[in-house]
Write a structure and sequence with these properties.
It is built from four helices and six strands, in the order H-H-E-E-H-E-E-E-E-H. By secondary structure, the protein is an alpha+beta fold. It has a six-stranded mixed β-sheet. Strand 4 and strand 5 (114-126) form a beta hairpin.
């Protein structure tokens, strides 16, 4: 009698796999200008906080402000790359607090690439899928800080 054994992922490891997939989907939607899919990564009552502009607002307002940028990317007027690295990850099976740095690179109409780094925190909940409940863009980060953060 021969049995194949499938390794079982620990719950903690499985949650990190799911969260890494969540962040990869956000990167994909931003890079492709897929506004509809990007919008679905947020909880309907999500809040976006910016330490840079000292604002707090419902994600519905932020999405209205970001929609044109997605349209430009989708139309090929702007090439965008979004990547995440983490400095602290606290989670259980249905909640997560992710802290790190994201890198946003944009190239408009064949011009020079401009990369900006942001310290961020995100509070996520999992219902059927992971959703951002709170996004806090804390402050600008340096390239050195980015390089020291952990890749997912």
């Amino acid at each position: 009698l021969s049995m194949s054994v499938t390794p079982v992922l620990s719950d903690e490891h499985q949650v990190l796999v799911e969260l890494d997939s969540f962040w990869a989907e956000i990167s994909r939607t931003v890079g492709e200008g897929d506004f509809q899919a990007y919008s679905k990564t947020y909880h309907k009552d999500a809040v976006v906080v910016s330490g840079i502009s000292n604002t707090s607002q419902p994600v519905s307002r932020s999405l209205l402000e970001w929609e044109n940028g997605f349209a430009e990317t989708r139309a090929g007027e702007n090439k965008v790359n979004l990547a995440f690295r983490f400095t602290n990850r606290i989670n259980d099976a249905t909640t997560a607090h992710e802290k790190g740095i994201f890198s946003y690179t944009s190239v408009r109409d064949g011009g020079e690439a401009k990369t900006t780094y942001f310290h961020f925190e995100a509070l996520l909940v999992k219902q059927e899928k992971w959703k951002t409940l709170m996004e806090y863009q804390i402050a600008l980060a340096s390239k050195e800080e980015w390089q020291e953060a952990h890749k997912p």
